[in-house]
Structure formats: C-alpha cells, structure tokens
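User: What would this chain look like folded?
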Amino acid sequence: MSDEAPRKDLLQEPVAPELFVLRDKKGPILYAPLGRLMARANEPAISAALAYARDHTAYDAMSADEQTVVRAFNERGFFASRALPQHERTFRPTQVTLFPTNNCNLRCTYCYAFGGEGGGNGEPLTTMSLQCAQRAVDLIAKNARERRDEGDGTRNFLVSIHGNGEPFCAYDLIQEIVWYAQDVAEELGIPAVFNAATNGVLTEEQLDFVVANFNSVNVSFDGLPAFQDENRPTAGGKGSFAATDRTMRRLGEAGVGFGIRTTVTAAMVDSMPAIVEFVAQHYPGLEQLHFEPVWECGRCKTSSNVMPDSATFVKRYLESLAVAQEHKLRLVFSGARQDILSDTFCKVSSGSFTVTPTGDLTACYEVSYASDPRSKRFFFGRFDPERNEFVFDDAKLEALSTLNVHNIRYCDDCFCRWHCAGDCAAKVLDGIELEEHHGSVRCEISRALTLNQIQRKLDWKPQAEGSTQDGE
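Assistant: Here's the prediction, encoded as structure tokens.
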C-alpha cells in the first residue's frame, strides 16, 4: 500500500475561511472544521458558497437563487473568521506520567518497548528511584496549587502510572508513590488523582490497592481469549487471559472506571465486531473500548504480527461501531476525533511530562530509552539525584513545541487538520523532519472514520427514549 494516502475522493483544496468539500454516495458536503459546521447541498449551492468564500464581491454577480444560498450559509456561520487552535507553550505541568519499571511479566508479541527485555537494545532492567518519583509529584502538585490560586481552572494534580514495562512489577514503589502523593495533596490542600495503564496480570493484593486508590484504569487486552493468550503470553509462555479477565471483572464489580485498549493485527481485524460483542457482554463496567491497529515496531518486527489493511480496518471498525451502539459502549480510534479542535495530536508539544525508569524526561510514551534514535528529539531533561531536582533542556522544549500541525505543510489541505492534528509524532516523524511528513496509512483510517463521524451527525435522527445514536 502506498505511504501517501489518496484524498481525491474526499476533499478539494481549502479556501479561506477553511472550507472543504467532502463527498459520499449522497453527494457533496460543505464542511467548516473550525466551526464544526457541516451541511449537505447540491453542486450549484456548493459552487456558490466556495465562490463567495474566495471573493465576497462575487455575490453581486450571482443569481437570486445563489444569493439565497450564500445568505443561508452565512447565517449559519460558514464564512466567519475563527482563531486557529494554539497549544499552551509554557511548560508548567500539573500532571506526570511515571514509568516505574521496564520489567514486565508478559512478552507481548508486538510490544513497542520490548517490555522485560531492555527495549531490545540491551539496556538493563531498571526501577525508578523513589526520590525521583517524589520530586516529580512535588513539581506538579506545586504547579497545580499555584495555577488553581491564579484562577486558571486547575482543580487537582494527576499522577499517571504507565510504563515501558508492566508498572505493577514495581508494586512496592507504586504504593510509596501513591501514599506520598496523598500526603502532598493533604499538605497543599489540592486533590491528587491517580490513573494507571496495566496489562491486567495483577495479584489480589495489587487489585485491592488499585480499587482502593485509583480513579481510572486502562487495561491492555486483545478482546477474545484466543487472541489474548496468543499475542500476550506471560514471560513463562503461558496464556494471560484468565488473569486479565479476573482483573476487569473485579474493577467492574468495584465500580472503578476502566477502559480496554485492543491492538488490532491483520490476523484479528475481521474479528473486531466479535470483540466488541464479547467485551460488552462480559465486562458491564467497561466505559470505553479503544481499537488501534498495530504499528510495526519493537517486537512486531520479529514476530508474524503485521498491520491490517487500512480499508479493512475501517470496514470492520464501522461494523464494530454498530455493535457498540447496541450496547451503549464508547468505541474510539485515536485519529478519529471530529469533536476535538487542536493543533497537537497529544501533549508531545504542549508540556508532556513523562519520567522513564532511568529518570529521563520524554515527551512521548513510545520513546523511553536513551538508545532509541528518536530520543534525540523527544528527551528534554532528566532527574539529577545529586541536586535532587529535574534539569530541563529549554532548547529541546522549544523544539518540541514546534511539532504541531501549523508546521506540517502536508496537512494544510486536509479536513482532519484540526482534529487529528498531524497524528502521532513518534510514528509519522520517525527519522524525518516536519517538512518530510507525507502522511501514512493511518491518515487513510483517520480521514475515513472522521468523515463517518460527520456523516452520522448530518444524518442523525432523534431516537426513542433510552436508546443511543452514537457509540463514540
């Protein structure tokens, strides 16, 4: 499949203000992303709107019918000037993502970080120092209190437990982090919030601790028992379904909000609707199911896992969405988010504060080893134990702030520009500069699913009480 995603069937060149013409089987759609405005219209109406948008003086030469159309679009705000999204440039984080360890009790066949094996680069298995974790908590808590007192809407500070391994392999450290953050929250008078990402292979004691202390949990789970056991075996080669299943049932019973993140391989793609049905029936406490096509990196390069064909992924995703709607389950893909207006896909250019087990600071979860060539772009400091503080590279932070869609020329004529915001920088900018960004197969998926979100809003009809229109 071509690395450059085709677009002729979806859009034309934009005009100022940003207007796009999308097309489906029902005909053209006029779309103004910054206003989230959309309308179906016939070709003459679309032509009149574009002509007026390019040059308002064209209105005087239009027919009466064309002028009526232009006035109608204008009244709805299609021609209004709007400010472009701009991310916050000041690095003053109120949340931190801590990677307690790169050790792992699983050996997932597609793991981007070679969890449990030093990132595939021979780096040692490492556990973060408690000193480093505590200083990270101090920093964000202080920022949060100051920002709250300044009236910027900050209400708490967030400690997120993640990892390039399974974080709960460093369970003793996690306990200390949570207890310390709770003490800091009480001392400063601002609440602490905790969330975690986990593979779900936890002991009963660990589950008790999660239920008692964490506000939300995201579980990596491949949707069906056979896929889970095959793709996500334990370090000893056994299946992991039974343990992960127990964890999700317990979270649901305890009322802890949790989501599932399913990595979809080519071998799994046709089973996506069945996965939705399975998780909806087995885990009634589930709040969100996240489908993400596998990205061929890490262990994926040494296993049989390959990325599914983009057209097939889109087809099965839309089938899955219909199943999710029946169960009132939220289904998401990271690049399809028509309700969001942003110039950044994630916080990589707007203050991401992630600490690796070695105390390095990275702007991206997927770049967590100094031996990763991408670390030259995404690492922006480290913890200095002698000074007992974090040392930041201001030049790196400034460079990271430029990784946004304003600076990606390839995206200028895409109607998803302010929604996917250029997509994941670690994936699409791997080894290249911004000006070399020419899209990826993920662009095909994002455009197709974002177009579908627009179509469903246009075709929405009031439902009977108690029913749901949209699974997203």
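The chain is about 35% helix and 15% strand. If you want, I can go into more detail on any region.
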